[in-house]
Design goal:
The complex is a heterodimer of chains A (357) and B (318). With 357 residues, chain A is mainly α. In chain A, helix 6 packs antiparallel against helix 7, helix 10 packs antiparallel against helix 13 and helix 11 packs parallel to helix 13. Chain A is built from 15 helices and no strands. The model of chain A has no long low-confidence stretch (mean pLDDT 85). Chain B is mainly α and 318 residues long. Chain B is 81% helix and 0% strand. The longest helix of chain B is centred in the last third of the chain and has 32 residues. In chain B, 37% of the residues are buried. The model of chain B has no long low-confidence stretch (mean pLDDT 86). Classes of the chains: A mainly alpha (357), B mainly alpha (318). At the A-B interface, helix 1, helix 2, helix 3, helix 5 and helix 9 of A face helix 1, helix 2, helix 3, helix 11 and helix 12 of B.
Chain lengths: 357, 318
């Protein structure tokens, strides 16, 4: 927790980054610190979500045994009350203590609404669209961390469901490509988004985490064979866009590492493109790489860990699925190994040379 | 002054005239990784990929089981590779992290060697004794290196060996007993590690490693106790409950002392899950499920409230 002195120091420090005199509302800042989730570590967030999910499952058990699932009107009314209640609780008191309660209500509300709408002979697609609309509405009305996070997941889960239900499997490439672009924008323009308005600033964190998970879900659909019957004709589409974003990302890195020579930049970009070329038919690998690189750039640990785990998984899956003999696979793997070790030795030498100067 | 964090910039930007450029600069200077961090990261990334790919390439090569290659050639080749990599590890010129990564590669090759041995002499590749041999023969390296990822591999091997042993040899062991032993094995690691780092300050064990192993131990205990609750009388259940209570109590104590929120949230969550299972065991009527739902919400909220209060106290102590 920051005290008044701390905050004063902070403001003075931040003044140094500004050209003009910094205007601020100190009382509001202190109040915001009181209310903020400064203390809320990742562990507590996970605890809230897990608790919410378990409680919703138990509640679902209650509904089934009690036979309440027979009445569609009852479900619709109760579902709406639950969702409205969750939103209402958060609008009224945005307290961390209310998180588990409101997440449970929110999830239960969606489950009830889903059942209720299903009873009314609505198709899965209509229900998914309804879910997407409710999730967007929630994001507009409350910017509480937990509800926003869950809303993002529900929204993207519904989009994936729409794709699957309508057998428009190739749209998954557009889903993945759009997310790759969106995530890159989100990470590289952090300052622009959080200064664009209070609502966006509050939504930034939960949306970032939610979007990474949704992107990973899309990548899993592409990375593991047999989940979706994706036609091989378009599989390059998403990888080309992801690889292009990685190359775009490199320009941010160039500025950071003070690389100014154009020739060097061009060589590195071509080199990256060539290195990633073998993964064109497997967009999940560059996708996970993009998450790792962006997360490390902005020092976002959760994303980094998720990215590394996904990266290892997708690479193993890639080699497992390859239709070559084990011998060819072994040669491919071994030469990739030599390639990266050489890259390590090369960069190591370069850095050592720089240090001597 | 404390270090400026992302949250500080977020909150202040909301209630001040901080511009996009100013925020960007503040983020880059205080939060984002700098040039040195990038250089380190890229180096580590390349060498991990390099060694990882090479080791898996070698494993795949032997998995191919080339018929034309004489069995002595196969084993000789892999032994040669182990000797070469282990010699590399002894070179003081290479930096220590790189050497540790290479040693992890050699540890994987030892597995490949035993797999080839199993292939040649038809001992089967998923028998528990294969994993047992692999585990035993890398023990020294694991201890000497003190490299957390290698330790994690080692524990993974111990767990695998044990689970396979329970399945293939000790078929008459009850599930609860197996989970009790798994719990003991995994809980022993963080307990020992914490004791060692208390008496020898030079030992530095990364938190993520301890947390991963502790999480495994807590999960085993929770699953074991829940199976015990729903199955009929099992002799090992009281033992598991006793051991778990001792371990959980010391975990909470350690969490409070070391100011680790991880133990203080994992252990109560495990207790909540066990509590919910107990309630369902008492009755599985509809009202009980409603009660369980409310119980989970209330108890998780209570845990979070306590955690926030504790954290506030810690911050004020600083």
């Amino acid at each position: 927790m920051r005290n008044r002195d701390n905050i004063q120091h902070l403001l003075e420090h931040l003044q140094t980054t500004e050209e003009k005199e910094l205007q601020f509302n100190k009382e509001a800042i202190i109040a915001a610190y009181q209310k903020s989730r400064y203390h809320q570590s990742l562990t507590i967030k996970i605890l809230s979500v897990l608790g919410g999910i378990l409680a919703s499952l138990a509640f679902l058990g209650f509904l089934f045994i009690a036979g309440l699932y027979n009445s569609s009107t009852g479900q619709l009314i109760l579902g709406t009350i639950c969702i409205a209640g969750a939103i209402g609780i958060n609008r009224k008191y945005d307290k961390i203590l209310m998180d588990t309660l409101s997440v449970s209500f929110f999830i239960i509300g969606f489950i009830l609404l889903g059942f209720g709408l299903g009873k009314l002979q609505m198709t899965g697609s209509t229900i998914s669209i309804a879910f997407i609309l409710i999730a967007i509405f929630t994001l507009c009305v409350v910017q509480n961390y937990m509800l926003s996070f869950v809303s993002v997941l529900i929204m993207n889960g519904s989009i994936l469901t729409l794709i699957i239900l309508n057998k428009a499997y190739d749209l998954i490439h557009i889903y993945v490509a759009a997310f790759a672009l969106f995530i890159t924008y989100l990470f590289l323009k952090e300052a622009r988004i959080i200064t664009a308005g209070k609502a966006l600033s509050r939504l930034y964190d939960p949306v970032k985490t939610g979007v990474i998970l949704s992107f990973l879900a899309g990548l899993i659909c592409l990375g593991k064979r047999g989940i979706l019957p994706v036609s091989p004709d378009y599989i390059w589409l998403s990888s080309v866009i992801i690889i292009a974003t990685i190359i775009y990302w490199e320009f941010t890195l160039f500025r950071l590492l003070n690389t100014t020579k154009s020739s060097q930049k061009i060589i590195i970009c071509i080199f990256t493109a060539l290195t990633l070329l073998p993964t064109v038919l497997s967009p999940a690998i560059p996708g996970a790489l993009l998450i790792i690189l962006l997360s490390f750039l902005v020092n976002y640990k959760t994303g980094l860990v998720l990215g590394i785990m996904a990266f290892i998984y997708f690479i193993s899956q890639y080699y497992y699925d390859l239709n070559f003999t084990l011998l060819t696979k072994s040669l491919l793997l071994f030469s990739s190994g030599i390639f990266f070790t050489a890259l390590y030795l090369f960069t190591h030498k370069k850095l050592a040379a720089n240090e001597k100067i | 002054m404390q270090h400026i964090q992302r949250e500080d910039i977020y909150i202040i930007s909301r209630y001040s005239s901080l511009t996009e450029q100013g925020t960007d600069k503040a983020l880059k200077e205080n939060v984002y990784n700098n040039k040195e961090a990038w250089q380190k990261f890229l180096q580590l990334f390349f060498i991990s990929l390099g060694i990882g790919f090479m080791a898996s390439g070698i494993v795949f090569f032997f998995a191919y089981n080339w018929a034309d290659l004489h069995r002595f050639a196969k084993m000789g080749l892999i032994e040669l590779l182990i000797v070469v990599t282990t010699c590399l590890v002894c070179l003081h010129k290479i930096n220590i992290t790189t050497r540790n990564i290479i040693l992890t590669g050699s540890a994987i090759l030892v597995g490949a060697l035993f797999a080839v041995f199993g292939q040649v002499y038809q001992t089967g590749a998923n028998a528990y004794d294969f994993f047992l041999a692999w585990t035993l023969f890398i023990t020294l390296w694991v201890i000497i290196s003190g490299f957390a990822p290698l330790w994690l591999l080692y524990l993974l091997l111990i767990n695998t060996t044990f689970i396979l042993y329970a399945q293939q040899v000790a078929g008459n062991w009850s599930e609860v007993f197996v989970f009790t032993l798994l719990f003991i094995i995994n809980a022993a690691v963080p307990v020992t590690a914490i004791l060692i780092s208390r008496y020898r300050k030079t030992v530095n064990i990364p938190g993520w490693f301890l947390n991963t192993v502790a999480l495994a131990a807590v999960t085993y205990a929770t699953i074991g106790i829940i199976i015990g609750i729903f199955d009929d009388y099992k002799t090992s259940l009281p033992v598991l409950i006793l051991l778990a209570s001792i371990a959980f109590a010391s975990g909470i104590w350690h969490g409070l002392k070391a100011k680790s929120i991880f133990y203080l949230s994992t252990i109560p969550f495990s207790l909540i899950v066990i509590g919910a299972a107990l309630l369902i065991k008492i009755s599985d009527g509809e009202m009980m499920f409603l009660l369980v739902s409310l119980f989970i919400i209330a108890s998780v909220t209570l845990v979070i409230k306590t955690l926030i209060d504790i954290q506030k106290k810690w911050k004020n102590e600083k």
